Amino acid sequence: MHAHNPYLPELATVKEVIQETHNIRTLRIVLDDEEKMRRFVFRPGQVGQLSVFGVGESTFVINSPPSCKEYLQFSVMRAGEVTQRIHQLSAGDPIGVRAPLGNGFCFEELKGKDILFVGGGIGMAPLRTLLLHMIDHRADYGDIMIIYGARSPQDLCYRYEFDKWREGKVDLVLTVDSEFPGWKGRVGFVPTVLTEEAPSPHNRVAIVCGPPIMIKFVLFNLKELGFQSDQILTTLEKRMKCGIGICGRCNIGTNYVCVDGPVFSVAQLQGMVPEL
Amino acid sequence: MSRAIFIPRDGLHPVLDRLSAEMDVWVPVASGPQKCGGEFVRYVPGTVPVLERQSTTPPKRILLPQVESLLSYAYVKDPEDASRVKINLQAEIAAKPTVVFGARPCDVRGFLLFDRVFTGGPFQDEYYRKRRENTFFATLVCRQWDAACFCSSVGSGPADMEGSDLRLTPLEDGFLVEAINRRAHPILKLMGGEQPTKTQLEAAENLQKETTEEQVGTGDLTHSGDDFRGRFEDLEYWRSMVSQCISCGVCTFVCPTCYCFSITDEMQGLEGERLRSWDSCMFYQYTLEASGHNPRPSKFERYRNRIGHKFSFIPAKYAGMIGCCGCGRCIRSCPVSIDIRKVVENLKENACACS
User: Fold this and answer.
1) For residue range B255-268, what is the model confidence (pLDDT) as tens digits?
2) Which among A23, A129, A160, B66 is least surrounded, fewest beta carbons within 10 Å?
3) Topology of A107-235 in CATH?
4) ipTM
5) A237 at the B interface (CB within 8 A)?
6) pTM over 0.90, yes/no
7) CATH match of A10-101 with 2.40.30.10
8) Distance between CA A54 and CA A15 in Å, rounded?
9) Do B272 and A56 touch (CB under 8 A)?
């Protein structure tokens, strides 16, 4: 009935909340309209605007894979007003969602290629949806390597499913910034571990998401490893309001991150005005 | 053939009375303490339109209200399960037939951009679309330009009727009103008025011709995209052009083409509304992210984006359309005398200074 009003959220209910780290929570939500939930389709990398009515909306990537029909998953780091309130929600609470929005990953073009995921902290969320999609269609892709790092072992998201990822025949390299008692993974910043691992750029696409400082050095090191700018994808964040390319807020030159992104190749970014 | 009527100067009120009995009619009136300003208001019998000078604020808010409710919500107990809370959500999209009487070509030109942004996809803004479809513009052939006007420099002109439905030509003793598209015919019929004489028709035609040939503003600002890109990283340039800017945002407030908005929630008790309100890219908070990062931390980046948006990004996105209508309001209203024409013209000089 409201199909024509892009500002009107769908009503949904929080089904489950997972405390990932001290400031990141994952919400699994279900649209109240069962028919719409069944018919909901999206591309890995597309985003949704979550609404806490009375507080506002914020944009998050849908980090469940498209094959998951039971719920839509969002991971939210507590940072501002809306995320603060999202963190107060528990199972059974109502929430609004406008999704899917944005472009998503061009996963069709990645078929037949080797993949390198480089993630830091909450930056693993947009990578998770694509990773799980690739595991769902494992034969379509070559070698998959993940380098995922956080400050400490307790700051890694999705720890409870790392074993499951590994069962999908992916090479998961975990790293934390410094030594922690009981930590058996790597120690060091993500860009450094990337250089040590030195994955071959041949027929490979790198997908990078994390804090800006990590991205900066990862891009530098990827270039040193021989990756070209059209072989590197990243997802951008901006302050957003409408999420549908109208309100004028999230532009980088002519591009709106909300509709033209959030996924851009580094080659695309180089063609835009330098205003990140 | 366009259909036409003549309204004698003292016959304006009866015409507007008749119109306003059937639909919303907006007219420019004098405003402010000394009545030297001007703004558009809803006409009620007795309102005195001021058609002899440009209004201080454009008719922007008629199609994009300064604040409007996008939806309302209420938290209610689930009648089937008292331990649960549900949301009642409502969105009302309504628009009354509306005539904007006495806008100028520059005012209407702003809406040509709005049309692209709000209804040109990929998403349709139904609130805007519905209002737009129900709004008719009776636009003056403009004879009152001043030193700040530059509509001809941005590809328009004082007789440009693009986007309008009726043309008002001011004559010595009244106005000739012509329908310039079919959807305006019922409006013209409603207005009544007199059958124009041959002399009046000729006088109007002459004035239209004469006005079309006028060059309001010098120079051509329509091809500034490349120069802008060349200057983008030349912070020294932006510093020299807009160091006096105090980020007050009045340029965006009075601009007929500035449409950027914010969406905020307001709540009282268990009920509230999601509001859309005008925002300004001149403000620090506009792009401030929750992390504390701000891609446009100083007024230089913000002003640069305003120029870029109007003269580079919009033309690139919408087939050469300029995001400026040349009305000159930002120049007249700026408390520190920034002249947008100078900022754009100077992009050209030493355009490679940054490289």
Assistant:
1) 999 999 999 999 99
2) A160
3) Rossmann fold (3.40.50)
4) 0.92
5) yes
6) yes
7) yes
8) 21
9) no
